[in-house]
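Pasting two entries for a bug report.
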Amino acid sequence: MTTTLKGTTAQQDTNIIPFVPTGSFYFSHGIQAFQKRRFSAAVKWLKKAIEASPEEPLYPCQLSVVYTEVGSYHAANQVLTEVLAEHGKEYVDCYYLMANNYAHLGLLNDAKKYVDTYLEQPGDGEFEEAAKQLRDMLDSLEEEDEDDDWAFEDEDELIIYQETAFYHLEQEEWDEALSVLDEMMQLFPEFKIAKHRYAYALFMNGEREKAIQLEKETLEKEPANIHCDVNLAAFYLKQGMTEEAAFHIERLRNVFPMHEQQKLAVAETLARAGYYQEAVERFRSLRDKQVTRRRVYYKWYSISVYHTGNPSKALQLWEKGCKQFPKMGNEGGPWEQE
C-alpha cells in the first residue's frame, strides 16, 4: 500500500521554485552540441528552443545552419523561408544563408538572386565579405561554363591531351607532364586549367620561383580563381612558408565549390595545411568516381582520417591507393605526411 505524506512535506514543497526551461536554455545546449559536431542532438535542442520561443528568429536560423552542415540544403532553406515570411527584412542574413544553400545545390541562378538581395541591403551585414566571395565564385563559375561551350574542331584531341597530362602528373613524371601541358596551352589556350597544372608540374620539377610568379600573376587578374589559391598554398607549405600560405588557406576555408575537381583540390589543400577535420568533411562530400579514384584523394583523405582518430579507415584508404598507384607505397603511410 502506498502512502502519501502530507502536512510538513507539502509545506516544504511550496518553497521550491520549479525550473521551467526557456528557449535560451535549449538554444545554449544546441550550440554546445553543434560545436561538438553532435548534429542530431543539436537539431533536437534547437527544435525545443523554437517550440519554447517561437517568436525568436535566431533559433530557426541556427537550425538552418545545422541542416546546411549535414547537407540538408532543402530543409535549411525551408526553415529560412519561414523566418523571412514571419520577420521579413528584419533578418536579412537569411538571404545570404539561402544563397549559400542554393549554391551547394547547384541552383546558381537562385543563389545569385539571393546573394544579390543580401548585398543590396543597407549597412554592413555579418556575412558581407563571405557574400562577396560567393558572388565572385558564382561569376567565375558562369565564366567557366561559357568557356566550356566553345567547340573544338577535334574535341577528342583535347581529351587525349587531358588524359595524357593527368597520367604523367599522377605518376609524378614532371618532365613528360610539362611537355604535354605546354602543347595543350598552345593548342587550346581557352582551356584555363592547363596553366595551373603546368605551374604545379613546374614547381615540382624544381622551377619554384617561376611557378609561384605564374600563379601570382593569374591571381592578380582573376582574384576569385580557386586554382591559384590551391597552388600557391601548396607551394608555400612545401617550402615551410606557413605565413604566406595562411592567406590562401583562409580564403579556401570559406569557399565551397560546386565542381568536383575544385572540391578535391580544396580538400587536399586543407589536409596539407593540417585542417584535418575540415578536410575529412570535404572529402566525404565528393561523389564523382573520376575524382574519388585519384592518387591525391587516397593519400590526403587517408592522412586526414588518420589524424582525426580513425586509423583503420586510414589504412584501408592507403592500401587502396597503393594498389592503384604503387609509388604511394614508398611514402610510408598516412602517419607520415609531407
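Entry 2 (this is the one that rendered wrong in the viewer):
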Amino acid sequence: MILGTAIALMAVLMLVAGFEMLMVLGIPALAVKAGFFDRMPDMILVQRMTGGINQSLLLAIPFFLFAAELMGRGQIAGRLTGLVRALVGHARGGIGYTTIGAAMGFGAVSGSAPATVAAMGHILYPELRRAKFRDRFSLGLIVSSAETALLIPPSITLIVYGWITGTSITALFAAGLSVGLVLGLAFAILTAIEARRSGVAGDPRASLAEIGLALRRAGWALGLPVLILGGIYSGLFTPTEAAVVSVVYAILVEMRVYRSLDLKGLIAIAEKSAVQNAVIFLLLALGTALSYFITLAQIPGLLIAGLEAVRAGPVVFLMIANIAFIIAGMFVDPNSIQLILVPALYPVAASLGIDPVHFGMIVAVNVTLGMVTPPFGLDLFVASSTLQTPVAEIIAGIWPFILVNLLVLMLVTYVPGIATLAPSLLM
C-alpha cells in the first residue's frame, strides 16, 4: 500500500509541477527502486526496460509514423481529400463531411492524429471558411476529425494497448474501425446541424466524369489503405509487416508516381521521424519500468479488493476508469496515459469479466478525447502551429465536439456490442 501510494503521489506531484513526461515516468520508478528495492541489481531494471520494447510488434510504430510523414508532405493527403469532396461535397455543408471523410481516410493510412491535423488542416481550413462555416467551428472540426486516426486502423494507440495487454491487434483494429465510424457519424450529425444553422451550401454536384477523374487521381492513394487493411484481415501479413509495406508503398508513390518528393526531402522526413520515434520508445521503456513496480506494489490487487469491499461492479468501475482517463488526458500525452493507467486498470477490468477488446476501445476513445482536451491536448497545439491560429481560438471551437466525444464514450462504455461485434464476426 505504501509503495503504491508513493508511486502515485510522486507522479501526480511531478505532473502538477510541469515536469516532462520522460521524468514523470522515469523518476518515480528510479526513486521507488532506490527506496524500496535497493538490493535489486540495476541490471534487472535495465533488462525490464530493454526487454519490454524488444518486441517485433512495436516495430509497426516507427514505420507507420514514417509513412504518415511521407504522405503528409506529399500528395496522397490532397488526392484523398479531392475524391471525398467529389463524392459528398454537393450535400449541404459538404465540405464539412469532406473534412471528416478525408481525416478518416488519412487515418487509415497513417494511424497518427497529429499527422492528420498537419496534413489536412492547411488544405481544408480555407475551404471550410470559404463555405461560410464559422471560424471556430471549422477549427474544432479539423482538430476533432483527426481523432478518428487513433481509432481507424492502423492505429498506433491500439498497437500500444495491444502491446501492454497482449490483446490481439487484428481484433482491436476491427473494433477500432467500428468505433471510428460511430465517432465520424456523430461528428457528421453535428456538422449537419451547424450547416443548417449557418446556411452553408454545398458544392455543385460533381458529374460522373468529374468523379471518375477524382477516382483516377486518387487511385494510388486509395491503394494504400486497401493494401494495409486487406493484407491484415486476410492474414497475408501481420500489422508489423503492413507497416513496412506502407512505407515502401508511400515512397514509391510519392517519389516515382506523383514525383512530389526528392531524395533530399526523403532524408529530412526520415530524420524528423527518427527523432519522434526515439522519444516514443524511450517513453515505452520507462513505462515498462513503472509498470513493473506497479505490479510489485500489487496496485491492481488493491483496486480489486477496494471494489469488492464496496460491492462495485463493472458499471461503477468503468465510470471510475473513464473519469481517471479524462482527467489524465487533460495533462498527459496519449502513449503516457496508457503506460500509466492501463497496467493498473486492465487486470481489474479482466477480473470483472470485461472483454479486453471492449476495454481497449474505452481506453482508445478516452485517448482520442485527451488529444483535444484543454489545457494540454496535443492536437490543439499542432493545429495552432499548422494554421497559424492562437490556441485559445481553437479551444473556443472545440467544446461542441468534446460533448459529442463524451456521448460516444458513454455509448461505447455501456453498449459493448459497438466494440465487440466486428471482432467476433471477423475472428
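Dev reply: Rendering is fixed now. As a check, the viewer should reflect this: Residues 263-296 form the longest helix (34 residues).
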